[in-house]
From TrEMBL, chain A:
It holds the Pfam family Fer4_8. Residues 291-312 form the 4Fe-4S ferredoxin-type domain. Keywords: 4Fe-4S, Electron transport, Iron, Iron-sulfur, Metal-binding, Repeat, Transport. This is Lactate utilization protein. The keyword Coiled coil does not apply. InterPro entries: 4Fe4S_Fe-S-bd, 4Fe4S_Fe_S_CS, FTHF_cligase-like_sf, Helical_ferredxn, LUD_dom, LutB/LldF, LutB_C, NagB/RpiA_transferase-like. It comes from Allotamlana fucoidanivorans. One of its GO terms (molecular function) is metal ion binding. The keyword Iron applies. One of its GO terms (biological process) is lactate metabolic process.
TrEMBL record, chain B:
Residues 8-88, 133-226 form the Cysteine-rich domain. It holds the Pfam family CCG. This is (Fe-S)-binding protein. It comes from the Bacteria. GO terms for cellular component: cytosol. One of its GO terms (molecular function) is oxidoreductase activity.
Length: 456, 250
């Protein structure tokens, strides 16, 4: 199934689409207000972008520097070439400690690597502790948004889900009640966890420390209670110096939710006494993307989700329509690099309106990369015969004024005189919900020629 | 600068030429009224955008080359469509960058931009006593920067608003979402039909909810998409290209 088909599924419930669109538009507007209150916001984006470009050009230096400093702080550093290695490393740490229970705060990387099913297969209980993540985990669904993982669910949906899994009483979707119950449920899990897994928002090369941003404090809660902390990060999460956090922390929360800063920006530098801290640094296709000049800047991404909130397609097609860990515009430029065939419809799931590039805090030229992926996909993936024929023919007709004149005339003739069933049918997706233009007599060129003749 | 001596090549996009001749006529008449030495090079076809946006940029080189041939002799190239002009300026990088190609790319202007920035005029003496809603098409807005974008911090400006605000009797209505995409997107409108239609519907309803009588814009492809929905759903909204309004003297 391609994006268009999954989007059509999502659109069977128009009221829900409207609700989804409005909920995310609200976040987008909150972002505008909060970002535009910052004097020099556009300059801050420039800085963020330039810093990330510097990082990507010097990854080798910064990563090694980070490893060195982290080791000095008593942190264990591991390197994983791909998802498989990442999962094995995490499991081996678990096994070493005979750990059976894990609490996890939000990490898109572990989603990308499908860590949960791997650990569960080995008899380990994994609990996602971010409320939205816990909701989709209970529903056995992937997150539909990277910051708001359960945005596709209404509070009534959550009510039903909690009744089934947490034994709550029906509350007609009362948020206070449901959050209270989730808190009780999670508190228990926190208290009994052997290991806490977190993601990493920013890893600081010159200190060997890293920062995890959450709104619920669940990363701190997990890490402070468990004996072992495993932090998983993609290689692009590195920033050169601690003071650069002043750029990125300001950009991140405002872009993500319109908050001036996330409720918790937790700095982890070294393990507490008698505890262990591990960092797993993961490539999983990132160096390959780095080698693609046109698409390199996609690795600037700091996972704020602003491009999803602003995308008029995402808001109306839902995150699951992308069928990729990272949905929306940024996912549509990252995913083809992972599996061109599987994700070949995603770069076309856009009108190239450019709003994504405008909100991106690190100035990724998302819509331009979408355009470029389209060119790559047409060259490398087999295309539907009809589309290919139309495009190749159009290329010839439009390069030839005589052919264009004939084609234009016959098209106008057909539109004007053909019976309605020939124009409006299943082959014409334009005409399902839209009327075709009413055809006037002459084309502009014909009119122009006549006018010039009359003036002679 | 003596504008009178400058020769302007009128670019009429392929679908406007075939389906909306009145938009081409309004553009030509408007430029003539403004004293511009405007010519329509015959035998022009298209800018190649439909192919480029569909991933068939390679197959559009002949079209782009023909465009350059048709317009290389003019000081300015002016067309009533932001997205086509954007394509010429940004995507003709697939051609060998000869002097002709560079000149055509540098001197291509969307109609409103040409009037305001090159001719330096905002009041064109038009009158149009109606409540008008302006659809700011994405390629003109975010691509050519014809106006400030809601996402970007900065002073508010809009080339189209500059012109419409000077039309006698015209009341420019404010919308709930000032610059959201209408969902046309070229072949997107067909291959992602569901979302395209939903986006168009939402945009049209915003205009209706904002008490708009006439929906206008500087890109007729977006207008064609929304007009198709309006006509099918028999909604009380007229659609006109901005050139038609600016050329009105009623």
């Amino acid at each position: 199934m391609n994006h268009a088909k999954r989007a059509t599924e999502f659109n069977k419930d128009e009221a829900k689409v409207n609700w989804h669109d409005k909920a995310l538009w609200y976040v987008r507007e909150k972002r505008d207000k909060s970002a535009h209150n910052v004097h020099g916001w556009e300059y801050l984006r420039e800085l963020g972008s330039a810093l990330k470009a510097n990082v990507l050009s010097n990854l080798d230096t910064y990563l090694v520097q980070f490893e060195e400093n982290a080791k000095k702080n008593g942190v264990h550093v591991h390197w994983a070439a791909d998802a498989k290695e990442h999962n094995e490393i995490v499991l081996s740490i678990m096994n070493k400690h005979k750990a059976k229970k894990v609490v996890k705060s939000k990490s898109m990387l572990t989603e990308e690597c499908h860590l949960n099913p791997h650990l569960e297969k080995h008899g380990i209980e994994v609990i996602d502790t971010d409320l939205g993540e816990r909701i989709v985990q209970l529903a056995e669904e992937p997150p539909s948004h990277i910051v708001l993982p359960a945005i596709h669910k209404t509070k009534e949906d959550v009510d039903v889900l909690f009744q089934e899994h947490l034994g709550t009483i029906p509350s007609q979707g009362n948020p206070e009640y449901l959050v209270g119950e989730a808190r009780k449920h999670l508190r228990n899990k926190f208290l009994n966890a052997d290991v806490a897994i977190t993601g990493v928002n920013f890893a600081v090369a010159n200190t060997g420390g890293f920062v995890v941003c959450t709104n619920e404090g669940n990363a701190d809660m997990g890490v402070h209670l468990a004996k072992v902390h495993i932090a998983c990060m993609g290689i692009e999460k590195i920033i050169p110096r601690e003071e650069h956090l002043g750029v990125f922390l300001r950009l991140l929360a405002r872009s993500a939710t319109g908050q001036p800063i996330t409720t918790y920006s937790s700095h982890f530098n070294k393990p507490e006494e008698d505890k262990e801290m591990h960092i797993v640094i993961v490539d999983n296709g990132r160096t390959e993307q780095l080698s693609r000049e046109d698409f390199r800047a996609s690795l600037h991404c700091i996972r704020c989700g602003a491009c999803m909130n602003t995308c008029p397609i995402y808001r109306r097609s839902g995150g699951h329509s992308y069928d990729y860990t990272i949905p929306g515009p940024i996912g549509s430029i990252l995913s083809p690099g992972k599996d061109l065939k599987k994700h070949s419809s995603l770069p076309f799931a856009s009108t190239l309106c450019g709003s994504c590039s405008n909100v991106c805090p690190v100035k990724i030229n998302i819509h331009e990369q979408l355009y470029k992926w389209r060119q790559v996909i047409v060259k490398e993936e087999p295309q539907p015969v009809i589309k290919k024929t139309i495009m190749k023919t159009a290329g010839k007709v439009l390069a030839n004024p005589k052919l264009f004149e004939v084609a234009g005339k016959s098209a106008r003739f057909a539109l004007k005189h053909a019976p309605r069933f020939m124009v409006y049918n299943k082959l014409n997706a334009w005409g399902n919900a839209r009327d075709l233009p009413e055809v006037k007599g002459d084309s502009f060129e014909e009119w122009y020629k006549k006018r010039n003749k009359n003036n002679e | 600068m003596k504008k009178k001596n400058l020769k302007v090549g009128l670019f009429i996009p392929c679908y406007v030429n075939q389906l909306y001749p009145q938009v081409g006529i309004a553009t030509l008449e408007l430029l003539e009224k403004l004293g511009v030495d405007v010519h329509y090079p015959q035998g022009q076809t298209c800018c190649g955008q439909p192919l480029g946006n569909s991933g068939y940029e390679e197959d559009s080189k002949g079209i782009c080359q023909l465009f350059v041939e048709n317009f290389k002799a003019y000081d300015y190239i002016v067309g009533p469509s932001g997205s086509c002009i954007y394509h010429v300026k940004h995507h003709f990088d697939i051609l060998e960058q000869t002097e002709d190609v560079k000149r055509v790319r540098d001197n291509a202007y969307e109609l409103c931009e040409f009037i305001v920035k090159v001719l330096g005029k905002k009041d064109l003496g038009a009158s149009f006593p109606h409540k008008v809603g302006l659809h700011k098409s994405c390629h003109g807005l975010r691509g050519l920067k014809l106006g400030s974008c809601s996402e970007v911090k900065g002073e508010h400006y809009s080339t189209e608003e500059d012109l419409l605000n000077n039309v006698k009797g015209l009341q420019l209505m404010s919308l709930n979402r000032q610059d959201e995409c209408c969902g046309f997107g070229g072949t997107f409108s067909v291959f992602e039909e569901t979302i395209s239609v939903k986006m168009g519907k939402d945009r049209v309803n915003d205009h209706i909810a904002s008490d708009v009588e006439v929906l206008t814009g500087a890109d007729h492809s977006c207008l064609m998409h929304m007009e198709g929905l309006i006509n099918r759903n028999k909604q009380p909204l007229r659609v006109m290209h901005i050139a038609e309004i600016l050329n009105s003297t009623l």
